[in-house]
Structures are given as C-alpha cells and as structure tokens.
Amino acid sequence: MTMANIITTFAGAFIFPFLIRLCWGKMCDAWGAIGGWMAAGFIVGTTWTLTHGVGIIVQSGGAWIDMAWAAGAGLFVASAMSGDDVSKGFVNVVMALIGGTLGGFILSCL
C-alpha cells in the first residue's frame, strides 16, 4: 500500500465518525425520530459512497475492515477527548468491534 493510499484510507475512516458526531444529534433534535432515519440514510450512504464507491478507502490483502470499526473507534476517541465518561463509551466500542467483525465475516462468506 502506498503512502497516498494510507493517507486517503485514514481520511476516509475519519469522515464517517466526524459526520456522525457533527450531524446526527442535530438532525434528531431538529426532526425527531425521522431525523435519525434521515441521518442514517444520508450520513451512512454518503460516507459509504465516498469511501467505497469513489475509492477513498483502499483495502489490500485478505483483511476486510467494516465501517463500524471506524465509527466505534472514532466516536470513542472523540468522546474521550471531549471529557465524556469513557467507561460508558467502552461498551459501544466493544459492540462496534463485534458488529464490525460479524459484518466482515458475513461479507467474507459471499
């Protein structure tokens, strides 16, 4: 993997949790439950298209990384840096790792 591929992969992995942290709560506050559904469609859909469709994230080798890992790790670090309770966020990181592993396993079976 070239240095340019490494940089774009990290940038692509950063975009997803950044948009979640920046927009998701505001959309839910403004539009209620439908705002959460809209955030899920717009944020996840747009980020997936950028990272996988356009090709910002470059995956090489046999390992397959799921977006849940980027979201879980990125949101955990953002919460820790903003002074939130890290022990509450640890459960979310574990669930993101389980979900990412399960998603990657299912995709490897295809």
UniProtKB/TrEMBL annotation:
Keyword terms, alphabetized: Membrane, Transmembrane, Transmembrane helix
Transmembrane spans: 6-24, 31-50, 56-78, 90-108
Lineage: superkingdom: Bacteria
Protein name: Uncharacterized protein
